[in-house]
């Protein structure tokens, strides 16, 4: 997959911008605040119909303007597509494919896939289980649309059950006939979701480990485990016996909504004992594995966006990552870096065909 | 919005309370009424007042009725051995319009949804049980015609539990492919369900 060009109007700090990307490797360099990441975000919009950084769409309109518009031309194998994403203030966001607006914007997601690696990604490791579940849920949903449907149904059933628990606790009079259907929904869908997650992790782990080994030259042993209460053979009866506790807490204490993915390094939790560099490598390996999984699923290469990742990695890891780039493991790549000389040196050593763009306060210039 | 008259403002405020009507539409309706002759507005308000003060609910099935017992429940031509349980009046009317059903109804007045604070006590479930108890040798089937949502299914499950001690058949309306629908456009869940609950062809 190749993004041939992009044009922006009133998007973040860009008034108007038109730029072509004939090459596979594209580097955006420039001072902090010049708009490098904003350009990546515009690409993110074309792929996923939303910003990677700010979920409030109208805050991505340039100050004092009342609309933004992003247009890009993609090439997938030999077919060409035009994608346009625009927002007029106080109106609904419009996404068009070849000039035809989508009725449901969500139908666009997954057609032009992209993987973004940026400095905030370590939140996956350092944050709560919710972020880790979301990371994997997003990937599994792309592979299996039924998974997302089951997950949404499950969450709805869970909300209903929790409201019921609260009412039971207040009245002190639980009605088993009333809670039984919710228990059944949560157990049935829970087992399906659990099975999908287990299957996915089995497929994901070897790809992930390969990437980590490559990035760290096998110095450290890492592991990624999917943990869930549902592996217990007596889970269903434990779930039902937990009712008194659930009532006291007004929420459902057991189920796949408590699942987690445990990341370890040399058998210690990465969250607590991993160095910044190790955590960074771990996250990059997670994202590269995500890239491979989507590539397999789509049978073409997604875009890869690397936002400001050289700052936190040591030279060895940077070299490893660049080697992978040089071996053409990826398709089209967009990289940002505040230090042009570093990027130029890294990519010149690869002798790759690349374009270097200098970004200065909302303007772009290709450097020869 | 600024109105030139308090009378207009009051009327707009009242009308815009109705579902689907905002302030602008309400204002258009108010201006329309002012353009018409006085009688038409009086007829409208009279009809509304009568609707609200004189409407009755059937004491058997809770259908809206002009009498104590609605014309379905009091009809000798209807089959009183079957009760079709529905959520609300529009659902009852939808089934009536099929002209395929000749039994009686029972309107629950909603479906169970703990998020919205609606439990069995807020619905006409006790009166359904009572109704069946009183006529236990008369009623032999209850059809649950509830929406195919999690809330509809939960309500159906609950009712099934409450009805299990009676000697009667409890059935639910079939879920599947709409008539005239093409298979390739059916969603997977509906199609999956219609395969699971497929029906045998009757020969002869």
TrEMBL record, chain A:
SMART domains: AAA. The keyword Nucleotide-binding applies. Residues 22-360 form the AAA+ ATPase domain. ATP binds at residues 30-37. SUPFAM superfamilies: P-loop containing nucleoside triphosphate hydrolases. The RecF protein is involved in DNA metabolism; it is required for DNA replication and normal SOS inducibility. RecF binds preferentially to single-stranded, linear DNA. It also seems to bind ATP. NCBIfam families: recf. This is DNA replication and repair protein RecF. The gene is recF.
From TrEMBL, chain B:
Residues 81-178 form the Toprim domain. SUPFAM superfamilies: Recombination protein RecR. Pfam families: RecR_C, RecR_HhH, RecR_ZnF, Toprim_4. A zinc finger (C4-type) spans 58-73. HAMAP family: RecR. Belongs to the RecR family. May play a role in DNA repair. It seems to be involved in an RecBC-independent recombinational process of DNA repair. It may act with RecF and RecO. This is Recombination protein RecR.
């Amino acid at each position: 997959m190749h993004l041939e060009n992009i044009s922006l109007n009133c998007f973040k700090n860009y008034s108007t911008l038109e730029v072509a990307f004939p090459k596979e490797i594209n580097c955006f360099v420039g001072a902090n605040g010049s708009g490098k990441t904003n350009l990546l975000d515009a690409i993110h919009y074309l792929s996923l119909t939303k910003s990677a950084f700010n979920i409030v769409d109208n805050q991505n309109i340039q100050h004092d303007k009342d609309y933004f518009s992003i247009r890009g031309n993609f090439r997938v194998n030999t077919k060409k597509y035009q994608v346009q994403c625009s927002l007029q203030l106080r109106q609904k966001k419009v996404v068009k494919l070849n000039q035809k607006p989508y009725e449901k914007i969500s139908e666009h997601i997954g057609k032009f896939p992209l993987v973004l690696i940026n400095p905030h990604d370590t939140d996956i490791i350092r944050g709560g289980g919710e972020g880790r579940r979301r990371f994997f849920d997003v990937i599994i949903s792309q592979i299996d649309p039924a998974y997302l449907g089951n997950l949404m149904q499950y969450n709805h059933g869970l909300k209903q059950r929790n409201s019921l628990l609260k009412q039971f606790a207040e009245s002190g009079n639980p009605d088993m006939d009333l809670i039984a259907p919710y228990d059944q929904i949560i157990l049935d869908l829970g087992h399906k979701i659990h099975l999908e997650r287990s299957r996915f992790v089995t497929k994901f782990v070897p790809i992930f480990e390969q990437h980590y080994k490559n990035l760290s030259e096998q110095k450290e042993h890492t592991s990624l485990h999917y943990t869930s209460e549902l592996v217990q053979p007596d889970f269903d009866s434990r779930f039902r016996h937990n009712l008194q506790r659930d009532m006291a807490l007004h929420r459902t204490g057991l189920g796949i909504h408590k699942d987690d993915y445990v990341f370890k390094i040399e058998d210690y939790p990465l969250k607590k004992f991993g160095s910044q560099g190790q955590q960074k490598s771990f996250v990059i390996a997670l994202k590269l594995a995500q890239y491979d999984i989507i590539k397999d699923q789509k049978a073409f290469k997604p875009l890869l966006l690397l936002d400001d990742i050289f700052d936190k990695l040591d030279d060895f890891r940077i070299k490893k990552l660049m080697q992978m780039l040089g071996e053409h493991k990826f398709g089209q790549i967009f990289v940002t870096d505040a230090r042009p000389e570093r990027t130029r040196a890294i990519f010149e050593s690869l002798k790759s065909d690349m374009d270097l763009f200098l970004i200065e306060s909302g303007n772009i210039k290709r450097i020869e | 919005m600024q109105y030139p008259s308090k009378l207009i403002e009051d009327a707009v405020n009242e009308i815009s309370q109705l579902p689907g009507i905002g302030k602008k539409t309400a204002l258009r309706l108010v201006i329309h009424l002012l353009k018409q002759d006085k009688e038409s507005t009086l007829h409208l308000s009279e009809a509304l007042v009568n609707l609200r003060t004189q409407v009755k609910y059937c004491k058997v099935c809770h259908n809206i009725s002009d009498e104590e017992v609605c014309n379905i429940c009091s009809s000798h031509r209807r089959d009183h051995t079957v009760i079709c349980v529905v959520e609300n009046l529009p659902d009852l009317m939808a089934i009536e319009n099929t002209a395929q059903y000749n039994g009686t109804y029972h309107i629950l007045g909603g479906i169970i949804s703990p998020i919205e604070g609606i439990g069995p006590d807020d619905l006409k479930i006790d009166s359904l049980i009572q109704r069946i108890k009183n006529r236990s040798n008369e009623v032999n089937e209850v059809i649950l015609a509830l929406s195919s949502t999690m809330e509809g299914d939960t309500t159906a499950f609950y009712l099934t539990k409450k009805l299990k001690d009676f000697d009667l058949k409890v059935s639910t309306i079939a879920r599947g492919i709409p008539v005239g629908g093409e298979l390739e456009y059916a969603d997977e869940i509906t199609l999956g369900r219609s395969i699971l609950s497929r029906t045998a062809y009757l020969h002869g």
